[in-house]
Every structure is written in C-alpha cells, then in structure tokens.
Amino acid sequence: FARLDTLAPDQHLLHADALFHTGRYDRAEGAYLAYLDDVDGDPVIWKKIGDCRFFMGRYDEAITAYERALESTPDDPILLELYGDALLEVLRREEAYTAFEHALLASPDNPALLVKTADTLALLNRETEALALYDRLTLGGDADASLWRRRGNLLEKLERYDPALTSFEEALRLDPTDSVSMLGSARCLISLSRFEEAHGILSTLVSEIPGDPRIWHMLGTVLESLHRPDEALLAYEHIPDETPVQRGILLFESGRHDEAFSLLSSNPDKLSSRPEALKALSKSSMAIGMEDEALALVGQQVDEMTNDSGTLLLYAELLASASRPDDALAA
C-alpha cells in the first residue's frame, strides 16, 4: 500500500483492515475515515472506527462512532454490545444496561451478553436482578470460574457469606489458581468467624503474592483473632506504614513495652479514636517507668471526654497502680 500513489476505495478499506489487524489503530482510523469520503454512512465502517477509538481509550469518540453505525442498524446485537462496553468505560451505566438489554432481544441466550448485563445490574445496585441472572447462568453447568467468582462477590456484598463461600469454592474447583476467589473465600470465612480456615488460605496467598499489603493485613487480623500476637506482628511488618497503631497494640500485648511506647507515642492523633491504643500506650509508659507521663496522657483524655466510661476506668486503674487509691476511687 505504501508504494501506491493513490488508493481506490476498496484499497483504502483493505489498507485500513491491515492496519487494524496489526494494532496500528490510529492509522487504521484515518484510513477508515478516508474510505468514508468515498462511501458515506457505511455502518460497518463506523463500527470499525468505533473499535479503533475504543482500543485507543478514546471512549467518548468511540460512542459517537457506534451511534453513527446504530443509525442504520439499530438492532445489531454485536454493535449494541460494543456500544454498551464503551458506555461502561465512561460510567454511563444506565445507558449501557439499556444497550445490553436491547442486544438480548436479538440474542437472548448469548452468555457473554448475559454476564455483562448481570455485571451492569450489580454496578447499578440492582442486586436481586443481577443475582437472578448469575443463577440462571450457573445452573446450566457450563459456567466458568469467573462467573462463579462474580456470583460470590455479589453474595458477599449482600452479606450472604455461606452461599458466597460456596460460589468461591466452586470457582476454585474449576480454577485452583484463582487467587481472587481464594481471597473472597478468606473474607467470607473471616465474616463467619472461621479463622483457622481463613488462616490456611491467607498463608497460601502470602507465599504466592508476597507483595500484596491487603493480604498481609488480613492475615494479621486473623492471627489477632486467633490470639497469636507475635505472628500478627510479623504479618504487619510487611505493611509498616499502614498499621503503626495496630502494631503498637500488639507489641504491648506481647510485653514489648519499649517498642510499643516508641510506636504509639509517635501517633498521638490516633489515640482518641482507638481506646485500645490509649490503653497500650499508657500501660507501656507505666511499665518502662514513665508513670507521670502515663497519668498525664490519660488525664488529658478524661478532661476531653468526660463521659467516656472506658477512659475513666483506665484512668482509675492507672491511679491504683500508682498507689493513689483515693484518686482511683474518685475516678
């Protein structure tokens, strides 16, 4: 094509298709537009222009191209699906759902369309309708792991943890390497207080994806629930910038008072919202001989939150430890 001085209309189209299939979408778009100069209004060409723009991330322009194509072929299910995909990219979810629904009129058993429709319903918080579609798709016996995972995610969102767990487990039966479903299973097990089982899954995940701080955080939380603070601390060390207060509390619970004091005293703004952090810091201060500082710290919190019974009780406990029984009784 590059050696030709001029291109006939059919050569413009062949050239554009060749560019498109080699991933040179910007040049393909130009070639398709040049073809339109000779053959105006061809919906197939407007669809191809929309595809070029979609693959280049120019979604609003892709929508315009698909709309031009739909003017001539308004019931084309493939074109409507592409149109819906582009609308989703710019968060026009209601319109995307309408496009998918329209496409389903012509292709009612298309599984990809049904999945996209269900996904869009879930994004629109129309969970009951989305779940009905996921159930329809999984009943056939041909559902893949991603579909079971979608169903699990929706059920988890609805706080129906047992059936959500069943869905994630089915996804893992079909694809044992599905780390997203493993993580979903762990979340459901935590919500069901089945911490030992969650621990087993999370231990596997951190060995396979050691750089994901979310998994380390979940593992630390589970280890806390299992009353294994030293191991929880090791987990939190993988995300030091995210959990300084929680690590400080665990250091206190492990009897490492110097380290707990150092970490918690450097995060004073978190104390009022985390009573367990205030307790850990004040008691660590007492343990390392900083009795006056501990009493001043909690006394200040008492003055600021006069009706907080938990803070008053902690203050009384510290006063008693400081051999001030009368003040402790008054508190």
SSE layout and pairing:
Elements: H1 9-21, H2 25-38, H3 43-55, H4 59-72, H5 77-89, H6 93-106, H7 111-123, H8 127-139, H9 145-157, H10 161-174, H11 179-191, H12 195-208, H13 213-225, H14 229-236, H15 244-253, H16 257-265, H17 275-287, H18 291-304, H19 309-321, H20 325-330
Helix pairs in contact: 1-2, 2-3, 3-4, 4-5, 5-6, 6-7, 7-8, 8-9, 9-10, 9-11, 10-11, 11-12, 12-13, 13-14, 14-15, 15-16, 15-17, 16-17, 17-18, 17-19, 18-19
Can you give a write-up of this model?
This protein has 331 residues and is an all-alpha fold. Helix content is 75%, strand content 0%. It has 20 helices and no strands. The chain has helices at 9-21, 25-38, 43-55, 59-72, 77-89, 93-106, 111-123, 127-139, 145-157, 161-174, 179-191, 195-208, 213-225, 229-236, 244-253, 257-265, 275-287, 291-304, 309-321, 325-330.
